[in-house]
Target: Phosphotransferase
Amino acid sequence: MSYLADTSLNPAALEFLERIERQFHLDDEQLQTILAQFLKEFELGLSKYGESPAMVPTFVTHLPDGTERGTFLALDLGGTNLRVCQVTLLGNRQVEMNQSKYRVSEALKTGEAEDLFNYIADSVDHFLTTADIPLTEDEQLYLGLTFSFPVEQTAINKGKLLTWTKGFAATHAIGNDVMQMLQDALDRRHVHVKCAALINDTVGCLMSRAYFSGGCILGAIFGTGTNGAYVEDMKAVKKLSTDAIDGPLPDKMVINTEWGAFDNARKVIPRTIFDNKLDRESINPRFQAYEKCISGMYLGEIVRNILLYLIDNSILFGGNSSKQFNTHYGFDTELMSNIENDQSDEGVTCRAILTQKMGMDDKLVSPNDIAIVRWGCKIVATRAAKLSGCAVAAIINQTHCAEGHEDFVDVGVDGSLIQFYPGFEDGLRSSLRLLVGENVEKRTRIGLAKDGSGIGAALGALASLHQERERQVQPVLQAGLDTAKASREAAEGVGKAALADSIA
Ligand code: ADP
Ligand code: MG
Model:
């Protein structure tokens, strides 16, 4: 209650606020219950299709360790721009990169899928004419695509689009293999590029962190949404039939958890009326339940719901609101972050935001109001951070990665929330500490994954090449060769691989 301590709020108002604060508080026992439920839902998602979280097998079976080499193409499609990157892995945890952005117009986003993929192929073609990648006639560049839309993956380079999101609505795409559509478009243009890997952004985050750090147990995103990917033992992925895997059975596979859907059945996370209102008014009621308590898209809206409730109860702004406060999603999470970043006693930034961004009349904003708004941001963000720690703890438990040694446990992260929200990591660590113990929490290294969508996609293309080689050296394996070593050596430095040679 630190923000409210120095206010002149009357006891009734204080009690009113404390009652709300208690609803956002997660005690130790609740956090333990959430962790246990995570492990239960992980197990269910790994054993059956159609569960939530979906626990999507990605068919990525190798994580990089920083020694990888080669030149790859990476594409990143998902926002306003299409990004084409040439990524050269130097093999000493270093990377050289060169990239161009191509605008994806509204017409392309909502027109025929073939036009969209033709445009992507044209962009790749244009990029290659400007980039300096020496290739001989029969060499092909391997391409990784970071595709931030839901797909059902059946191989590292195959995945059917389930649905578009984020303003994309191109026709004749849903149900089709994204990689095939892209490969067809490249082939029509005679662009010598092989679509090798379809990579979710969390998987890219995991791989990028692994390359720069030498290892990584989890790639986690706390941005507009939240999600995580980790390395699972194949034998735990019960739903994946061995027939579904081409080539030798791997020991491990990266799983894209889609943990935003954790607790969709609403069993363990205590919900407030503010969460219920958000959910009811969302485009996907009852879905992405965990994400709705955690991510950038929603935190501001939860705070807005609290503040409106306080306005309606004449506890805030003398019962006055503004057009912005009355607008759905009218209070962005970035504003919360800015408000909490300001350490001044009087909350200068908070006042400026309320008056300049949120349209409140300065005369209607009292020091008590400032304290209440700061308090509202804090209780919502603290709960989000603590809940985020539960997912990290769940992965540490699930993978047993901290057992039997005293090494670092590496977690790669991405997203504005974890990067910029003041105290978010501290809050995450507070629940992590409770759930995995201080020793493991201290050994957990949480670091930004550098350009997961660019470097991660390139590493995905390398993993694909690596796996392809592994299938080819299978007969040699029986002659007693160490597969991993052979395939790594085969893959290194041959991003621009003349595969035809080695097959023959
Ligand atoms: P994306 O997840 O789409 O790749 P980001 O990681 O940048 O993009 O996350 C965007 C989300 O983060 C938005 O919901 C926005 O409200 C929120 N956000 C933007 N800036 C900040 C900030 N400084 N602090 C906290 N959250 C922020
Ligand atoms: Mg992002």
Q: What stands out?
A: The chain has two domains: 1-55+217-453, 59-199+456-504.
